[in-house]
Fold Beta-lactamase.
Amino acid sequence: MPPDAYQASGFQGQAVLVVPSRDAAIVRLRMTHDRAAWDLDAFAAAVLAALPPA
């Protein structure tokens, strides 16, 4: 994650991740019953990789 990234974690895997240097906000609203099955860092990395450079 970029050093300026910050996040808020919610109930059952919901999350908001803000990356000012990429002008991006990533929001996940889906419920996760098995926390081991979800990797927020990998998801965020994939989303950021898909975005054009800032």
The mean pLDDT is 90. The longest helix spans residues 40-50. The chain has one domain: 6-50. DSSP finds one helix and three strands in the chain.
